[in-house]
TrEMBL record, chain A:
GO terms for molecular function: ATP binding. Keywords: ATP-binding, Cell membrane, Membrane, Nucleotide-binding, Phosphonate transport, Translocase, Transport. It comes from the Bacteria. Coiled coil: none annotated. It comes from Sporolactobacillus mangiferae. NCBIfam families: ABC_phnC. Gene3D superfamilies: P-loop containing nucleotide triphosphate hydrolases (3.40.50.300). Pfam families: ABC_tran. Residues 5-249 form the ABC transporter domain. This is Phosphonate ABC transporter ATP-binding protein.
Automatic annotation (TrEMBL), chain B:
It comes from Sporolactobacillus mangiferae. InterPro entries: MetI-like, MetI-like_sf. The chain crosses the membrane at residues 12-33, 75-95, 176-200, 207-226, 232-249. Belongs to the binding-protein-dependent transport system permease family. The lineage of its organism: Bacteria, Bacillati, Bacillota, Bacilli, Bacillales. This is ABC transporter permease subunit. Residues 70-253 form the ABC transmembrane type-1 domain. The keyword DNA damage does not apply.
């Protein structure tokens, strides 16, 4: 199994002195579905953004696809980013544009300044956008403006926009935090499906431990900018949850115990 | 406890009111302005207005001259607003916290916009009059500078409000700076920006009369000319033409605004 992503001694200290990440080390294999969990302010968003360099790490190395990308700038950075799709808690769509226009934005990384600015997309790209939207169940909404969509539909547009990049890695920053449970399940199923059928590696920040355990191949627990757990969901114990979430873990532990019980029942 | 809360609040209002009254009284004493005399003069002004300040059949002969000047004024106002909008957009992009390239450029563009905005259009007219002389170009530049300052500020706020989210998304997809602006920032803020440009055109047409009087061009110039010749009938016709033009432009821009939404 080949390694797609490797973080070596990555640290991030913000200008105001906040240490968001300190000495983070882990690696992710190609095709893996990895979930990052941790309390609010633990540094999950920072961690994800240090990978596509939306945030510049203060220390350490990031190896992506066997290349050390720590020093990437300008054109090489843009080219790298086309290989890494990202979806967001707030969907980050241009609300006034139509669904298909938003999806095509995912191709801008491949465009020259002129054709990108003018939004000149090829027929192939439009076809691809159409197929992705069809796959995600948004065929009816293609020409609708995004401000008329529900949260779950917006997030699916976000996924299509990331997929049209032909990414090797998908970074998902709490993609279901603003969604109702049933839309959340739809989104998680789509992401899992993408990972299984398209062999795209997924790194996803989640607030819900039970969902992380249900979907992920591996869980990384972050607390106060440090990785305190890194292993399979089955290895995650109540004790680990306590180390990750600290004192306010009590209500989360109910989840994990239920989860264990369900697993036992299944057996 | 709530008693004292409301009491202090009432006291504060009373103090503010007292200060306002004092300032009004003080300034009218200083300038020897007499309110009762001022009010008493209003009926007289109305009587004078009705007996002298109306267009007559004779003054209609001037209509084609007046209309030619009005056209010039309208075109200068629109051109000033549109050209200013182009520059203002570039400065707003550099100055907005979402799209700024560097902090230095952002501060510089904000300072530049504030300078041109906080000085009134009439002051710019006089300043430019000294450099360019009495041409319609002077009027154009005065309106242009004032429009530029105002629009930069308005555009900057519009862009700020459109939010960082889409910009972040496009950046993370590898899009360059210029495509990000045209694909994310422009679509999010274009209708607001058009609305500000229309507003600026309306404002410019109103200001153009004063600017014209000061710089000796356009509709303001012709008004000044008739007025100083004491041809009040012709001067009043100029006012009628201005009012009708402004109303028409307002209707037009309201229509455009609705069509855009
Ligand atoms: N731009 C910034 N400047 C300064 N400090 C920041 C900045 N962004 C985040 N931080 C701080 O860094 C720490 C980690 O933030 P981060 O957003 O990565 O946490 P998170 O785990 O994603 O939290 P949440 O679950 O609430 O999204 C927090 O203490 C936060 O206040
Ligand atoms: Mg976060």
């Amino acid at each position: 199994m080949t390694t797609l992503l490797e973080m070596k001694h990555v640290s991030k200290k913000y200008g105001n002195g906040t240490v968001a990440l300190s000495d983070v080390n882990f690696s992710v294999n190609e095709g893996e579905f990895v979930s990052v969990i941790g309390p609010s302010g633990a540094g999950k968003s920072t961690l994800l953004r240090c990978i596509n360099k939306m945030i510049q790490a203060t220390d350490g190395e990031v190896i992506f696809d066997s290349v050390n990308i720590s020093g990437f700038k300008g054109r090489s950075l843009r080219k790298l980013r086309t290989k890494i799709g990202m979806i967001f808690q707030n969907y980050n769509l241009v609300e006034r544009l139509s669904v298909i226009e938003n999806v095509l934005h995912g191709r801008l990384g491949y465009k020259s300044m002129l054709s990108g600015s003018l939004g000149l997309f090829t027929n192939d790209e439009k076809q691809q956008a159409y197929h992705l939207l069809e796959m995600l169940g948004l065929k009816e909404q293609i020409y609708q403006r995004c401000d008329q969509l529900s949260g779950g539909q917006k997030q699916r547009v976000g996924i299509a926009r990331a997929l049209i990049q032909n990414p090797k890695l998908m970074l998902c920053d709490e993609p279901i935090a603003s969604l109702d449970p049933s839309s959340a399940k739809t989104i998680m199923d789509h992401l899992k499906n993408i990972s299984d059928s398209l062999k795209i590696t997924v790194l996803i920040n989640l607030h819900q431990v039970d969902i992380a355990m249900n979907y992920a191949d591996r869980i990384i627990g972050v607390s106060k900018g440090q990785i305190v757990f890194n292993g399979a969901p089955s290895q995650l114990t109540s004790g680990d949850i306590k180390t990750i979430y600290g004192s306010d873990a009590s209500n989360l532990m109910i989840n994990i115990e239920n989860h264990d019980r369900v697993k036992v029942a299944e057996k | 406890m709530s008693q004292t809360y409301f009491l202090t609040k009432r006291l504060r209002s009373l103090v503010v009111l007292g200060v306002i009254v004092l300032v009004c009284f003080g300034s009218s004493v200083l300038t020897q302005f007499n309110l009762s005399q001022g009010i008493a003069a209003i009926p007289k002004a109305i009587v004078w207005g009705f007996s002298n300040f109306y267009p007559t059949a004779d003054s209609l002969a001037y209509l084609s001259d007046i209309w030619a000047k009005m056209q010039e004024t309208l075109l200068v106002s629109i051109a000033a607003a549109v050209v200013a909008a182009i520059f203002a957009f570039i400065f707003a992009i550099l100055g907005s916290r979402i799209t700024k390239v560097s902090n230095f450029l952002a501060v510089l563009s904000r300072a530049f916009a504030n300078l041109s905005r906080n000085i009134d259009v009439s002051v710019w007219s006089i300043v430019l009059l000294l450099t360019f002389g009495q041409t319609s170009l002077t009027g154009f530049f005065a309106l242009f500078i004032a429009s530029f300052g105002f629009l930069t500020r308005a555009f900057m706020e519009t862009i700020d409000e459109s939010g960082t989210d889409p910009v972040e998304a496009l950046k993370s997809a590898g899009a360059g700076y210029v495509p990000t602006i045209f694909q994310a920032v422009v679509p999010s803020s274009i209708s607001q920006i058009m609305s500000w440009i229309l507003f600026m055109i309306e404002t410019n047409i109103r200001a153009a009369t004063l600017v014209g009087i000061l710089t000796g061009s356009g509709i303001g110039y012709i008004f000044d000319l008739y007025y100083k010749r004491m041809d009040y009938h012709a001067a009043s016709l100029v006012v009628v033409v201005i009012v009708i033009s402004i109303l028409l432009i307002e209707q037009l821009s309201n229509y455009v605004r609705r069509a855009m939404l």
